[in-house]
Amino acid sequence: MPPINPSSASPSWQAIITRYNNPRMSSSIWQMINSIIPYLLLWVLMIYTLNISFWLTLPITILAAGFLTRIFIIFHDCGHGSFFRSRKLNFIIGSVCGIFAFTPYHSWTDSHRAHHQTVGNLDKRGMGDVWTYTVREYKALSPMKRLGYRLYRHPLVLLGIGGLFKFVISNRFTTRRMTWKQRLNIYFTNTIWAIIFAGMHLLIGWKAFLLIQLPVIYFASIGGVFLFYLQHQFDEVIWCRQEDWDYKTMAMDGSSFFKLPAILQWFTGNIGFHHVHHLGPTIPNYKLAKCHRENEIFRDIKPITLIESFKSLKIRFWDEDQQRVVSLGDLRN
Q1: Would you say 303 and 224 are in contact if contact means Cβ atoms under 8 Å apart?
Q2: For position 4, what pLDDT does the model report?
Q3: Is 314 in a helix, a strand, or coil?
Q4: What is the pLDDT of residue 330?
């Protein structure tokens, strides 16, 4: 079906967003309870099972990673100001959830907000997205830089290494471009984790701590990076130059609708409804599915199934001539 014309929606998309962008305190608190408490209980269980066998603990780390993903979604919503009405409460809860997820609140939130204003814009790439070359840009690169791009985009690197590097290592450092607030927040997050590490070393030993924490953050990072990647790297995605960029069109046609099984939709906090989220980032995650379901404007959005999602992991480029994504195999043919 043809993409939805920005001028044809009735009611207006702004009116639709307004109906859903009010968080409910009871729903937000309940999501915190059913995400954070199970995660902490699983941590206790992993400590006990580790005394029996690491191979008994390992499957539990995968389940814990699912709850950590939900905690990250709370962190994400707080950054958008969509989890609570209070800005202060969003900051406090967001910062706490960010500690769980190894992610400093201010630097990530500021970068992510910029991502929402530049997604799909070929002239403003690099703000919170997976770097994508156009075909012409890739062909103009040196052989070594082409190899670097292929390695960067390879699933084993992107998912297997990239996520863990980002959360555990990259998030620990400041840059000259950061504001003082962003730097202080990173120092604060690092200090809290140093205290946690010291405390866990005294309680269970540093080896036991790492045998639990590293697999949890590793599995969570794989799932998180894959979700983030698919949000703007699917077959029907659109990209354009600055002069043609439109917020509503990019939200609807430049962001994916990832239709997951119910249990995975729950663990990922409905983030598969990413087209709705980009249209209305102030909508709480627990209202995204309802917004999609109740409004005709989203009826023609083509969903991506779990099986189909794995096709997107090919090394890809944007072809400005054909106005579509192409794979490395397409360039070689």
Answers
A1: no
A2: 39
A3: coil
A4: 85
SS3 126: coil
Terminal CA-to-CA distance of the chain, rounded, Å? Answer: 28
Q: Tell me, what's the pLDDT at 10?
A: 57
* 147 Cβ contact partners less than 8 Å away, ≥ 6 residues apart: none
Q: Which two tokens stand for residue 313?
A: 């992991």
Which residues in the chain show pLDDT less than 70?
1-10, 333
* Per-residue burial over 94-104, b = 16 or more CB atoms within 10 Å of its CB, e = otherwise: bbbbbbbbbbb
Q: Give the pLDDT of residue 332.
A: 77
Q: What is the dihedral of CA 317, 156, 261, 247, to 10 degrees?
A: -30
Q: Determine the length of the chain.
A: 333
What confidence score (pLDDT) does residue 314 get?
87
What pLDDT is stored for residue 298 in this prediction?
Answer: 93
- Find out whether 249 and 275 touch, Cβ atoms under 8 Å: no
Element (H, E) at 32: helix 25-50
Say which DSSP state 85 is in: S
Secondary structure (DSSP) of 214-283: HHHHHHHHHHHHHHHHHTT-STT---B-GGG--HHHHHHHSS-BB---HHHHHHTTTTTBHHHHHH-TTS
Q: What pLDDT is recorded for position 126?
A: 77
What's the token pair of residue 284? 């709480």
pLDDT given at position 288: 97
**What is the reported pLDDT for 156?**
94
3-state secondary structure of 51: coil
Q: Are 171 and 104 in contact (CB under 8 A)?
A: yes
